[in-house]
Structure formats: C-alpha cells, structure tokens
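Hi R.,

Here are the chain sequences for the assembly we discussed:
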Amino acid sequence: MDLNLKATELRLGLPGSDEPADQLQSSSSHVKNNKRSCSEIDGSCQKQESGAPAQKAQVVGWPPVRSYRKNVMEQQKKPDSDGSGFVKVSMDGAPYLRKIDLKLYKNYFDLLKALENMFKCTIGVYSEREGYNGSEYAPTYEDKDGDWMLVGDVPWDMFITSCKRLRIMKGSEAKGLGCL
Amino acid sequence: MDPEPKKPEDSPSNSANSHTPVQPPSPFPDEVLEKVLSFIDSHKDRSSVSLVRKDWYNAERWTRSKLFIGNCYSVSPEIVARRFPRIKSITLKGKPRFSDFNMLPRDWGANVHSWLVMFAKVYPFLEELRLKRMTVTDESLELLAKSFSGFKSLSLSSCDGFTDIGLKAIASHCRNLTELDIQDSVTEDVGGGWLSCFPENFASLEVLNFASLNSEVSFDDLERLVSRCKSLRVLKVNESITLDQLQRLLVHAPQLLELGTGSFLQELTPRQYEDIESAFSNCKNLQILSGLWEANSLYLPVLYGACAGLTFLNLSDAPLQSGEFAKLLAHCPNLRRLWVVDTVEDKGLEAVGSSCPLLEELRVFPADPYDRHHRDGVTELGFLAVSRGCRNLHYVLYFCRRMTNAAVVTIVQNCPDFTHFRLCIMTPGQPDYLTNDPMDEAFAAVVKTCTKLKRLSVSGLLTDLTFEFIGKYAKNLETLSVAFAGNSDWGMQCVLEGCPKLRKLEIRDSPFGNAALLSGLKKYEMMRSLWMSDCNVTMKGCRLLAREMPRLNVEVIMDEESDESQADKVYVYRSVAGPRRDAPPFVLTL
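And here is the predicted structure of the full complex:
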C-alpha cells in the first residue's frame, strides 16, 4: 500500500518537484564571474555564502564602497562583551541611559519587571501574535546582526547571548515589530 | 606636471647651445617674467605657460613652487628633480581608484619612499606633502620628519603602510607642523601613543584629523594639545573620544571651523547634557561637521545650537532614521553639502528637499551594501524629492536598489547643472524596475541635459546605446566609470572616439575586447589612465597596444587562477618615465 507519505512530507520545494528547491538564480545571474571558465561549466556557478540558498552572489569590489564603510550597521557594533552580561538600556524620552546585567535575571518576567521598576513605566504582557500591543511601552533589543528585535520572541537563553543593547520604545512606534 | 605628447624635451639646453632655431629675444627680462609667473598657481595654467617658448619654460620651472602629480608612475623623481629646482608643496597620487574597493592586490606599488629620498636631497625647504592612495611606511615618515626642518603640512588620504611609529616621528620632529590630516586610511591597528609625542611647547597646529585611526589616544594629552593650539581650526577626533570628553575639547576650541566628533552615544547626566549643549552653542564658526558615530535622537539635539552656519554635514558614519534626521535638518538651512546613510530612506530625502534649498552636493551611502538585512534604503522617489527642492544640486553620489528612466529624466530637468553624476544601482545589470527596460534613456538624458558634466558613473542594465549617447553628447566629460554594462566593442569605441576631454576611464565586467581597447590607441596618451578588469581583453591585444604606443605603460595584473591568454586586469597610462622599476612579480609590463 502506497501511503504516499512523500506528499505529506514537509520540505523545501515547489509543489510537484521531487528535488529540493534549486538555488534561486539571483537577478545578477548574468554577472560575469571573475573566473571566466566557471560560466562555461554551469550557469549557476556563483560564489554562495555557505549554506544559505538564494543569496545574491557577492562580487569582489561591488558595490563600490570603501572597506571601512562596508557595513555601517555592523560597524557600530562594539560588543559589550566584557564577559559580564551588562547591556545599555535606553528609553525613548529619557535623557540618559542605564545599564543592567542580564545575568542577574532568570527569565523574561524578571527582566521586564526590573525594567518597569527602573524606568517607572508599564510594559505589559508579551504575546506571540500581538507583541506588546496595548502597552504604553515595548521593550526591544539589538542583536548580534545589528537587527532590532522584539524582546520575548526567542528563548531566554538565546536572548541573553545575542542581546547587545536594549531600547524601550513607545508602544505606538513598536507596532510594526509585533505583527511579524 | 602633466606630460603631453607635444611637450618639449624634459631638460632643454640653454638657447645659446641648442640646435633649434634661435628664438627672437623676449620683450621681458627674466626677472619680470618670473615675477609675473609667480602669481600663477594652477598647475594646468603653468603647463600651458611652459609650452609657449623656451624662456617661458625656464621661467616657469624656476618659479613653480607647487607640484601636482596625478599619477606617480607617469614621471620619475629624477625627472622632476631636474626640471623643478624650487618646490615647497607636493601632491602625489598613486594607485588607481579601484584599489579603494580591494581590486588591487597588496603590494601593488605606489610606495612613496623613493620620492622622499629624492625630495630630501633636492627640496630641503619642502613644506607640504599631500598623498593619495599611496603606500607610506614608517621608514618614510621618519625620513620625512627628519629631512625638512620647515615642514608644515602632511595629508594622507586613502594611504596605507604606516603605524604609530611613523606618526610618532612626525609628532616628535616636525616643530613647525600646522597640519596633520589622515583620511580614509587603511591601517591595521595603529596605536595611539603618537599623539602624546607632540612636545609640550608645540602649539602651531591648525588642522588635526585622526578620525579614521581606530586606537585610543591619551585624552589628557589631546586636551592639552588642543588648548595650547590657539590657531586650531580643524579638529576631527576618532571614535574613542566620548561625548563628555568632546565637551571639554570644545570649551578649549570654540573657534573651530571644522569638527569631527567622536562617539555620540554615552550615558550622560542631565548636567553633562547641558554642558555639551552649551559647548556646541558656543561654536559660532562651525561650518563642517562629521563623525557622530552612534548618534541618535537622544543626543542629536545637543548639536542644534551649532548648526546655523553649517555648510557641510557629513553623516556617513551615523545611520539615522528619517525622523531624527529631519529634525536635525530643520536646524541646518545653509547646507551646501550633505553626506548621509540610506537609513534615512526616501522620507529623509524629502526632508532634504524641503529644508536645504541651497544644497549643491548630496551623497547617499548604503548601510547594507551586501543586502544582508534586506532594508529598503532609498529609491528613485527620494532622489526626485531632492531634485525638486534643491535646484542648485550639481554633485550627486547615490546608492540605491531601484531606479527608473523616467525619474532620472525628471531629475536632470530639475537640476541641469550636474557636474558630477554618480549613480549606483546596486544590483549589477538591473533594469528600470517599472518598465523593465534598460537604463539607457536615463543616462542619455543626463548627458544631453547636463552640458557641464565632468564626471559620470553609470550602472543598471545598459546597452551600447548608453555609450553612443555619452560619446555624442558628453563633451566636457573627464572621468567615466562603467560596470556590468554594454553589449559590444562598439560601446567603448563610441566613448573613446567621442569624448574629447576624457582623462580617466575605468571599466569592469563589461564585454569590451581588443577591438575596443585598440580603438583608443591615440587617445590614451591624452588621458591620465585607463583601467579595464574582467572584460574581454586578451594578452595579445595588450601586447599590440604596448608595441604601437611606446609612451604608454601597459600593465597586466596577473591573477593566480587566471587563464594565461586573458588579461583580467589591465592598467594603461601615459608616462615619460618608462616602465615601472618597482613592479612586483604579478604586474606584467608589456
């Protein structure tokens, strides 16, 4: 009996295809490679970042930005990695920052209570769907990649290793973050 | 020195001994001629003067005090020393521009040392040295520091090769130093101890820029230095200087014309906040502002008091959001030049259009050039908004992820005075995102409308048509940058045959081959240089060019993995110095 288990399998691939999704050709697929012979072998020969499918091929010296400008977002990262869990906390509207040691807290609940105390504000309750919708303030943090994330989305342990800085945003501005 | 094909010999003999027909005596005695010529500054004018007649050539060479060498390999230190006996200021440029983007192997060349050795011998009264894209070792800086007792001004732009050892020598020995300006320099960790080497009684500094060096300096020594240099007008510190430290510096130097701040993010007490705010308000002469690392809406307001007179705001190290950016701009009505990061988005550029009517130059840099974070950046809408509000715009550098022909056509109609139009659509070969057409129409409009255009960088999906238009209309074009564009040799030929003032042509990843390369035979001697990388040029074509044109240096940079018959990186330039004597093994001079 053919249960056709394959049909119920979850995998990457267009419906009907048996192969995993071909590496998507980026719009730069006609870009000449530095190695001319490469393009004769296989049209999809591109320098790919390891593991990630459908990444744009990175060409040497393109776009033409100077090395030190390369990733201004990442450039800003001076890791607060002195071994302690101290991160800076800013709150919209407050003239100066605070610092807290994430290692002192066991979970999100403790952290949020501490923040509410420190800044005399209400942050409310996190929900996966709504974020902190309805609260006056929403806690966000900057992760290792330089992205601003909503506090609470990832497991606590992952959070404390990837959190570089906290920012308590006005609830109205944080709306977008919660609805992803 | 601008070597031209029709130039007289480099070292003409005195007219008494020459075989050339005796020229009629000059109506002016030499002293008068020399006095008159001493008022001529521009090196281009001086070049023209030197071609008039032999005594003018001699008078010119004796009165020239400023030397400009746009390509250090176009001439040799010996030739320069023979021709010009009295030089006080030298500007030297080295590597081709694409070296900024890591397209040149390390140790390619442009080492300043042999020049310095000659200068030390022949120009003991040298006062100023301005280097761009050159390798400068500590040994060279030490030689510089010890050889010229009256040395005043050192500028290193996009240079590499030095550490704090060399800088220490400069600080310790140059007693009359007025300018130390280090920009965009590629340095491995240069230590910060050099700043402490300025002697205690040293007070002549007018310009100090160490913004691109990343090591911490002694703040105490910096503060003392700033407070005793009463003529300081330019101060650009690095990121290690904090906000409250900056406040103390500003209190000592409220007369500054140009300021580069350090880090702009710090826990400040309300008192410190007030102090820095008032320090900025006291800087009544500030015209140029940069730095501002990590600035955000919390601390930008401390600047407001200093912004009324600002003409150049450089936010390229401070990725701001549109809201805080717009608020800042509202305080800067006199801006002429603005550099920003594309995190301000189109909305931020709309604010530029409405707040900065006097704007002449705009540069928008990508926060995320490799598209790792999939941020929007800016689009054709932002550019349009600026062009509507800033009718004096003549210089633009714009990195974006999408553009349309229609937008560019409108933009140049709004701003027909562009002299520098550098558009970088970041995905190679990308068409008009609305119509899917090539971007030919856009650049056709640019060259047709902007008759004063001197510099053009093209991008996006482009056919040979673009180059036909450039050749036909861009009569004042001096510099052209091409990447991932064109269909055939015809495109490049149009440019080479059409643009009479072309001086620098740099091309990468475009299907131009030997026929195109060789069509420019005669032209290259009138240009500073040609760069072609990853095109369809072969060694055969390069050898042919080299054979036909002995006064050109045709250099091929060999790549380990490259095919032996292909010429992957070609650099062609005119030279009176012959082939390079210092070429590394991977640079083949044909």
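The interface with chain B takes residues 26-28, 30-32, 34-37, 56, 58-73, 75-76, 88, 90, 92, 94-99, 145-147 of chain A (CB under 8 Å). The mean pLDDT of chain A is 66.

Let me know if anything looks off.

Best,
T.
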